[in-house]
Amino acid sequence: MRPPPFELEDPDINVSSLIDMVFLLLSYFLVSASLIRSEADLGIRLPGMVAQAQTVDMADEQIIEVRETGRVVLNGLEYDTPESTELPQLVQVLIRYRMASAAAKSEPMVTLQPDDKTRHQRVVDVMNACARAGIRNVTFAAGGD
């Protein structure tokens, strides 16, 4: 007896999942491409610098004295009370100094000059005030009397 003839079947390729994937990718790229705006389309005007009528002589370095009693003295003026740990007046002056230094295109520098018997916590308070004002260039000088 002869075996029945072998019949070849045409293989079926299921392309429905491939078509679904192509449409999903197409829709993703269409949606994401429409969200991007070019920088030229953004209407941004940057602030400019105002020229000064007179030049302002600014000291390159500010010296902050920290007295034994806890008083903080900058340029001969006392700021805040000895009990104040946040030193808001000193922070405001240092922020103005930093902004003036930035306008003059120089680096703001602060030198701390504590007395020999000044409490360490008070020096840390002044350093924190410098950090809140955004001044990173802080050095120490030899102690006072």
What is the CATH fold-level name of the domain at 61-140? Nucleotidyltransferase, domain 5
Task: Please write the string of helix (H) and strand (E) elements.
Answer: HEEEHEHE
Q: Which sheet architecture does the biggest sheet show?
A: 5 strands, mixed
Content-based structural category = alpha/beta
Report the principal-axis shape.
elongated
End-to-end CA span: 123 Å
Strand content: 15-25%
Number of alpha- plus pi-helical segments: 3
Q: What oligomerization state is this entry in? A: single chain
User: How are the strands of the biggest sheet laid out side by side?
Assistant: 3-2-1-4-5
Q: In which range does the helix fraction lie? A: 25-40%
The assigned CATH architecture of the domain at 61-140 is 2-Layer Sandwich
**Unreliable runs:** none
Tell me what you see in this structure.
- The structure is a single chain.
- The chain has 145 residues and is α/β, with parallel strands linked by helices.
- It has a domain at 61-140: Nucleotidyltransferase, domain 5 (2-Layer Sandwich), CATH 3.30.420.
- Helices cover 34% and strands 15% of the residues.
- It is built from 3 helices and 5 strands, in the order αβββαβαβ.
- α3 (120-133) links the parallel β4 and β5 (137-140).
- The relative contact order is 0.13.
